[in-house]
Amino acid sequence: MMPDLSYVKDYFDLRIEEIETTFLHFRGKELEAIQRNFERGGFFRIFQKGNWLSTSFNDVESQINRENIDNLLKNALLLKPKEGSLTFLFPKEDKRNYKIIDQEELLNYKFDLLRKYNNILLSHPKIVTTNAIYNDRLVKKIFYSKDGREIDFTIFYYTIYLVAVSRDGNNICDYGLGIGRSKILEGEVSIKELLKDLDNKESEIEKIVKIAVDLLSAESVVGGTYDVVIDQRLAGVFAHEAFGHLSEADHIYTNEKLKKLMAIGSQYGIEELTIVDDPLLIGERGSYLYDDEGTEAKKTYLLKEGKIAGHLHSKETAARMGEELTGNARSISYRYPPIVRMSNTYIEPRDKSFEELLSLLDNGLYICGARGGQTELENFSFASQYAYEVKKGKLGKMIKDVTICGNVFETLKNIKGIGNDLKIFGGSCGKGNQYPLPVGDGGPHILIKNVIIGGR
Amino acid sequence: MIIEDLKELLKDKKVIYDIFYEEGHSEILQFRGDEPYSCEKKEKKGVGLRVIKEGRIGFSSTSDFSKLKELVNTALALSFYGEKIDIKLPLEKTLPEVKTVSNSASLVKSEKLFSMGEELISLIKEKEPEVKIDLSIEKEYQYVRLANSEGFDSSYEKIILGFSFDGLLVLEDGITWVSDFYNLSENPFLDLKKVSEDFLEIIKISKKKIKINTDKYKVILMPLPAAHFFSILFVGANGKQLEKKATPLSDKEGKQIAPSFLNITDDGIYPFGYNTSPFDGDGIKRRRTKVVENGIFCNFLFDLITAKKLNRESTGNSDRSYESLPRIQASNIYIEPSKDYPLSRIIKELKEGIIIYHLLGGGQSNVLAGEFNWVINLGFKIENGEIIGRIKDCMFAGNLYEYLNKIILIGSEIKDLGNYYVPPIVLDDCKIVAKI
What we know:
heterodimer, A: alpha+beta, PmbA/TldD fold, 2 domains, seven-stranded mixed β-sheet, about 20% helix, globular, B: alpha+beta, six-stranded mixed β-sheet, 10 helices, about 40% strand
């Protein structure tokens, strides 16, 4: 039951979350952690005279009452009243009920699955240890706002993350990958059926071992400027980290000059280059129905045919910039306010095969996987997992420690070829102390000219 | 009382257990684009239960205290799968006196903190009206109580007060982003004039751009990038990596890994450090552990269980929140400063080099092996003892274990980063890759 908040004059929203997680972690042969967590909490905020006043809590029932709300409003005296409004929604009620039909406890299934994969990782004598993690998270979100939204839906996130650490004397390498999916629960649901998405990955896991071992004899890259083909994972990191974050309107609206750089219609890439953010993709890790402001999720073109086509918005940034809501206000949990975030962000595929893209490299690199990516507005830096030399279109020896960096606007201009083999991966994003937010990212293979590669 | 209720529920279960209870509240004041923006209050509480049943570990946690019975049953059920370990939980008789609550930080009013933010922004905007400032002040109160089946039952309180801000300047030829942080947990006073002057100086020098060639340079790492640099060492010095044979330091105990003037301590009792406490997540007393002494690597960091497996002693480095099992983590890292080497003198005595204020890419390389691969996000060229301009599109990559031996100087001015206490350091012979 939602409390009666009709006496609150300004815009408010209240979000209550119930979260159940299961976490299993093998490190080497040992199961280092097995745990279940139960969380319940809420986040309440008021928008008054251009400022936000908010509070988060665990005691949902005792916290939201008139006295506490009046106390919260006293803080408004600290903040200077200023201009500012929000984009409001029309009233809507949407409650999705579900029932989990699995009769048996699935812990055995999860444990066996993870142990099976961990044993594959440990199967090579050069693998000294592993990190094999299974994690699921059932999140029920109940949302209620002044503009008449009453939303209630549940998402189940399920992920495995597998890393092999190889060693030869003092040479230590690691390689790993994660598989992350999500499901919006409705009607009768079998969790065991969903978890099949994570099963039958043996061949991918054998590849993890091979790459971790091969990396031991790979040489470090020589730093410099190269023409490169990047794989789908790295393309996803580029779409999300380098470009996607710049499309988030909270970065844009406070700065006139940045607004100009990201103005709709500005041309930064070739006509084949289109980047989208789409929370409505089925089953991807960054998918959802409504954001944490009760706004419907929808597909947004960020870059269309090489031109800036849209920005990602919250109720506040949409009003400030006079643009449409996109449903991208998200938070990692009830402890945090919603901020502008991406969902599933990817580069659309075009017509070139991977072989065609490689054939366009005379002397370059094929760069695979992503250890991580960081950006600060125009500058980005992504560390890859492994790479190969490419000479006259042919793959050569494996190399390692390849980090690509550059200026996003220049790099967009240097994208000269787009593959036909789109893949989307589940990942996690950090912004404004909010990590990990479930997201998806991806793309096809991409050819980029003149990329700066860090090295020794 | 949650702990008492749980003790009662566990009374007849014949298990070893510990209960980690946490509650706290915090207030976050934020300015965005020079303007006050939000005031956020957070209340937090939760409890985590670790049980060891027939030598196997299970764990569960909750923030919903109506579910304590389920918490106990879940932890017990999960122990069926858990790692088998022969362990006794500790009963420390004496705990160190630590400074975690300062009266002045505890008493400082939100109004005062807020006006500090306003004043700093106006001091900066007076000189640089084009810069956009985001600023955040966070005051957090934390209460932790740990009780175990051996009879250990102790608690502590902590107040953390952090002041951080960043400025963004968009110019025709690119963006300059400068950030700074102050740990005010001991003393909420901040010399705003000095803070603004330091900030403005960096903004000023960043306006002039300079091109450099790919080459080897002497490099000054300012405290924040120096902390990134040393954090790689603490991946290798983690006892868990020793257990799993995944650290290049596994055969380096007692051996020289750095010049003899390098001394690094993991200090779990540093006054007002972010990670200071009387006891760690296992209930072991916090302490100072020399990790590098006179350039010699002398200690890995351990928690209770990893130490037991390797037949060592815990160093009190078990990090824990109510939501998860303890794990090994450095507490507060202290790099011993030199004497008489303020930054101004370091720069003055440098004929040619690079000074780095901010890096991108920390932690995303193969840190297990000691690799780093950074983009210099904010760095400057020094010639004949003077900063002559900002360098852009440059990268710096290498291996920590190689570069420890390239440290040629340690500055004398410590920066308090909350969990790192680190002066600027100077590295010799660094290959900087510049875009042609």
